[in-house]
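Bench notes, afternoon.
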Amino acid sequence: MSTLPLEDYKRYGRQMILDGFGLPGQLKLQRASVAVVGAGGLGCPALQYLGAAGIGRIGIIDHDRVELSNLSRQILHNEETVGMYKADSATQALKRLNSHLTVDAITTALTAENALSLLAPYDVILDCTDNAPTRYLLSDTAVALKKPLVSGAAQKYEGQLCVYNLGPDGPCYRCLFPKPPAQDTVGTCEETGILGVVTGIIGDMQALETIRLITGLHDYKPSLLMFSALSSPQFKNFKLRTRNVKCAACGTAEQRLGEIKDIDYVQFCGGPRPDWERRGLGEGVDGWRIRIKDFETALKSGKQVSILDVRPETEFGICQLPLSTNVPLGRLVANPIEFLPKKGMEAYIVCRLGNDSQIAVEALRSVSGEGVVIKDVVGGLRAWSRDVDATFPVY
């Protein structure tokens, strides 16, 4: 019978004494290989527990670098690794946990051209990413390689978990979502917010599902787990149907996907994700926008001005310009005439990046009379912090 290094009996003893686990379960983990795509909010807790459990080989695929804004939820990174590749930072942390781990740090972006070759060496694939194109790419690749895909997602106070391509009949991601969501309905954590511990819960669950698969503890019944930090109960589990026979990726009908390397996943999902900061710096409608330095000059001119901040109330509570008034965008658009400036007063509209403020100006100008000055601030409060007041908070 195979054995472990002597020190591993002490390291992994607490899990080896579990009924149904034992030495055979630990040996299965030792011989297994797992690829974790994304070393962020989901990937970090998943990696931490997979490494601690004794997975024999772990691949970390992530081409992004650590930023300060990551540290509230991406727990393998720290202040000293800001600027480092996340894959390298996570590897460093795992090696501190267990110097004997075999970790492949891959700082190359996962693409349709390299997905099959990068993921082929691993037994289980974890999707710890946050964008639709990569989700479809990983699902199609998992189907092609006949490997299970442990997929997690988290946003705001909510998360979800599913194992796709599970066993002979488990559905793939395309089975459930044959068409990607519209881009304007899907926001990033930067746009919508995220409670860090939610990513921790889902990432830990991804690690648990992976361990169950490898050790033979999984029941192989496809399901979708939904989590909400603010609901009671917080967890809800939904049984999933079997594979869709008409699925373009895994169905029994004639395959229609073609070669993965030939698929443009970004275009399939509606094109590149909008760069909202860059959009907020655009020219907009001629005469409707004011540059940040000109806005500063207007405030110092002594003129009577009105500053409307159209961010949500929560964001206004984080930081605001002196003498500004908070009117959330939805409220302003619903009744713009209520917020028109008084005659002879100039009105300036601000938001976080300079996008919502353009919508607000359009609504106000549609009901304003001649000679009323209403402009929005190019780049919003991000530009104010960058070009006027470096002490103004950026979040």
